[in-house]
From TrEMBL:
Organism: Actinomycetospora endophytica
Protein name from the UniProt record: DUF1508 domain-containing protein
Domain DUF1508: 10-57
Cross-referenced PANTHER family: PTHR40606, UPF0339 PROTEIN YEGP (PTHR40606:SF1)
Amino acid sequence: MAGKFEVYEDRAGKHRFRLKAGNGEIVAQGEAYETKSAAHKGCESVQKAAADAKIVEV
């Protein structure tokens, strides 16, 4: 099963997203956004950045 982004409203009324692996485990979470639309854009930004992201040790 493929992973998925979930967009939700937190207790403070802000919109957030989390990325879940195919097994349901949360592997990443986004910051708080004022609007649902902004949270969706955050998901899209992560998708674009992750496509070419390298793994580096610091």
